[in-house]
Amino acid sequence: MAHDTDDADAIRARRALLISTALAALSCGSPGDGVVPSTSVTSVASTSGPTSTATTSAKSSVPPSRPWAKVMAEAPPRGVPAVVTGPEAEWLKHLENDLEKRYETVRLVWEATPGCDAAASDCRATWRELGVKAKAMYDANRGRGFGGCGGANGETGSLVARRSTHEQYLQALIGELEGYLTQVAEGFSPQGGQEWQRLLANAKKPPPMPCLSPCARPEVSELLQWVQFEQGASTIADETALKQTVATFKANQKPSKIVVRGHADAGEPKPQELAKARAEKVAAWLIANGVPKDRVETKSFGADFPLRKAAPKDGIDINRRVDFEAVPL
Fold first, then answer.
1. Burial 2-31 (b: 16+ CB within 10 A, else e)
2. Does residue 145 share a domain with residue 54?
3. Cβ of 239: how many Cβ atoms within 10 Å?
4. pLDDT of 146 higher than 90
5. Quick check: is 217 in a domain?
6. Is 304 in contact with 82 (CB distance < 8 Å)?
């Protein structure tokens, strides 16, 4: 069900944030640039791999694939919505620049499938060049830290969720690509398959771990929860995220306010008004449960900040949400 899928996405996003925050404490890199060693991507036997730029020998039975333009058309939303301003917009610009580089490393491998046997003397250099590109792809896509020490400097649930959706999509692409190239190499000869596996193992070797750097507790913590809604509804179905938000707000060392941000899907009726109604319902709940009225602000994003390109018509989806921003006073 859509609700189960979205809950899983939320859990993965929170887990990714907890891991990245912990690793940020060990990293001396700049915020958002920490590298997390990843597990090897499992080879996926795909019946449609990337398009080959060379003429594939008849020995390879792997069928052609969708073009890169279609791959990118199916990717999650990108860019900085015009309705987003301030520190969050800067984070989104950083994310967009990062994603542009990462998708490019995948494209360079996706469109470079050799049309010859990796075990052949006149073809080894071509496959080795592909191995170099694959190394760059794996190094660029090992998972990133996101927000330094986790303070309230523009990070929101929507920001983390957008990164999470791209992480999942990129890893799926890399898995598909790895499976496809393995099929191609083995389709020429067993020796060619072995040569590719050797190149692949080298490409997956992680870079050195980052150095140590302490991370102080933030005086105002970020609010990464979000509340999800049924199609066309503004009724709060689950209060778990709201209770966590109140607890985080009350635990802050310094005064802050909560910006309650309503979102809707483009397929819902009157998305701007619906997003506003959702934000107001959540704000009323926060005030009724211990957050001072003068510390709560609402904002409607309408359907201008989607996390998925197409939300399901029924059930709950992450596009239909309220999220929060913590603002120090």
1. beeebeebbeebbebbeebbebbbebebeb
2. yes
3. 14
4. no
5. no
6. yes
In a domain, 161, yes or no: yes
pTM value is 0.78
pLDDT band at 270 (very low <50, low <70, confident <90, very high): very high
What is the arrangement of strands in the sheet containing 256-262, beginning at the earlier edge strand?
226-230, 316-328, 256-262, 296-300
Backbone angles phi, psi at 269, to 5 degrees: -70, 135
Q: What is the pLDDT of residues 31-60, one digit of tens each?
A: 333 322 233 333 333 334 454 433 344 344
- What string of DSSP letters covers 160-213? HHHHHHHHHHHHHHHHHHHHHHHHHHHHH-HHHHHHHHHHHHHHTPPPPPPPP-
Final residue in a domain of this structure, among 146, 171, 203: 203
Q: Is residue 309 in a domain?
A: yes
Would residue 219 count as lying in a domain?
no
pLDDT band of residue 138 (cuts 50, 70, 90) is very high
| Strand spans (E) along the chain | 226-230, 256-262, 296-300, 316-328
Nearest C-alpha neighbor of 144 from the set 167, 128, 165 = 167
